Amino acid sequence: GLASSWVRAEDGRSWTFTLRQEARWSNGRSVTAAQVAASMRRALDPAVGSEYAYMLHVIAGARGWNAHGKAAAALRGQSREPGLIERLRMLHRSAGGRPQRIDVRRLPSTEPVLEALEAAKGPRLREALTGRRVRWTPSELEGLLTDLERFAEHLQWSHTKARTEFGRSLGVVAIDARTVRIDLARPHPRLLDVLALPVAAVVPPAALGGGRDESPWWAEVDAPVTGPYRLVRFDPRPKAGGLIAELRRNDVYWDAASVRQPRFAFVSVADPYDSLNRFTKKQLDWVSDWPREVTPALRKAPELRVAEAAIVYYFVLNCAHPALRDVRVRRALAMSLDRKAMLRELRGFKLHRPAETLVPASLPGYVPPPGLPFDPEGARELLAAAGHPGGKGLPPIQILYNTNQAHYEVARFTAAQWRSHLGVDVTTRNEEWSLYLDSRREGRFAACRAGWISDYADATDFLDLFTGTSLQNHSRWSDPRFDALLAEAREMHESRPRARLLANAEKLLLESAPCVPVYWYGVADLVQSWVKGFRTRADGDTVIHNTLSRHPLRGLWIER
Prior knowledge:
Elements lengths: L2 E6 L5 E6 L13 H12 L17 H15 E2 L2 E2 L1 H11 L5 E2 L9 H4 L8 H8 L4 E2 L1 H28 L6 E5 L2 E5 L7 H5 L33 E6 L8 E7 L13 E5 L4 H9 L5 E2 L7 H4 L5 E14 L9 H9 L3 H7 L7 E2 L21 H10 L11 E6 L2 H18 L3 E6 L1 H10 L4 E7 L6 H4 L16 H11 L4 H18 L2 E13 L3 E2 L24 E2 L2
Parallel strand pairs: 15-16, 15-17
Antiparallel strand pairs: 1-2, 2-8, 3-4, 5-6, 7-8, 9-10, 10-11, 12-18, 13-17, 13-18, 14-18, 19-20
Helix pairs in contact: 2-6, 3-6, 10-12, 16-17
C-alpha cells in the first residue's frame, strides 16, 4: 500500500523499499521515507512503552534501542532500588559460603533482563536467566555475578549506540525522500507480514513532534490518517447501540478508484443477544458476537461464515514440577485427553477443531508432524513405565486457568479425563488475570491453560514460544536442538526445505511434551447476503481457510 516496490538482498539481511510517488496522508501531503524511519524509531522508543515493540526486534539495533537500556538498569539498579546484581550479591553473602538454590527468574528486576536474553553470552548466564539452573555453589555464584556485570556493560553500550543511531544510520534508514532501507539483525522470511502489523505503521508528523500547523493530538478525528478511508467521527464511550466510529472513502488515497464502498459505520452493541436480534432484523450488516449456545442452530445458515483461525488453545506443563519432570508422564497426559469428546460435549465449542499439534494445520505451506493422539491405553503404559501405575505415587497435579467460564469448562473436563484414564490426583485453580500472569511467569503451577493468536501465518510464530530465550516459555523446558532447528530455518528462504525444518522442530517439541495442544479455534462471522468481497464464503459445514480472519474494508462493498 505504501511502497511501489522492494528488493531483498541475497543474504536476506537488508530490504530496500521504494515509496509510491502518489502516497499521501489524508490531508494531501506526501508520506516520506524520513517519516517511515522516524515512526519505527518512535514505536521502539522505551519511553513510549509499546507492548508490541518486540515484533520489530528483528531489525538491527531495535532490541538495543527498545530493551537493552531497561535491562542494564534492572541489572544495576536505579532510584535506590537494588538491581538484580545487588540482590544476588546479598543472597550470596547471607548464605555464608554454603551452596544455595536460587531461581533467578523469580527474583524482582529480572523481567527486563529476559527481554535482552538473546544478547546473553556464555552457558552459565543463559542457564541462570532461562531458569534451567537453580543450584549454585559459592564459586559458581561469584562467576555468575561477574558475567552479569559484563552483561550490563554490554547492554548499556548497545543501548547508547542505538539511542544515537537507530532510525538514522542504523536499522531503518531514509536513503532519500522515497527510499527506505531496513537492515535486519538476522534474516526474517516473513518480514513483510511483520511490517504490515499496526506497530510498524507510519504515523503522522505531529506524532513525531514536527509541523506547527498539525493538530497537537494526532489521533483526533480531523487528524491525518493514511489509508483507503478517513475517520470522520469517533466516540470512545458511545451509548448502547450508538455509533462508535464512521469512516468515509479517502479521495487522496493512491488507489481510491478501486475502493467501492463510500462509508462504514461501527455500532456499539454490548449484549450478544441484542447483536443477533439486530442482525436478524437486518439492522446490521456484519456481526462477530452472539450467544455461544445459539451457534449450533446457525451452522446451516447461509449468513454464517466460518474460518479455521491460526489460534491454538493449549496447556503448558511445568517441566520443573515434581510430577512432570519425567517426559513419559507429560506424554501420558497429552495422550489421555479426548479432544473430540471435549468439543462435542462442551457447549459453544462446535466451531473448533481438535489439535494434536501446536501449529495449526491450516497454515499455508506447512505440514505438521504426527501429534500425540488420544490413546488412553498407551498413556497408562507410559505412566507405569515412569513408575506410577494407575497414578500411584505421582504428586498431585493442579490445572491453573484465568477466571473465565469457557476456561473453567475446559479445565474441569481435562481434570476428569486425567483422573479417569490415568488415576492421577488432579484439581483445578482459577485466578484473576494479573495474578494468573504472575503465577505463570513464576512457575506456580503444574499445568496451566494458555493460548496463542498468530501475528502472521507462519509456524515460527508458534514454535518460537518454546525457545530457550522466549519470554512466553513458562514450561521450564528448553532444548538446544530445537533452538538450532529454528535458527537454521530463520536463515533459509526456500519454502519447502524450511517447512521441513520447522516440522522437525515441532516433532521434537511434541516428543518432549512441554505442552498439551487442545484445540484450534474456528472463527465465525454473520454477514448479510448483500455484503460482497468478504474473504470467508458460506459453505455449509466446510471449514474455509482464512487463517488470520482478516477482511480489509477496501475490499468490501454493499450490493442490493
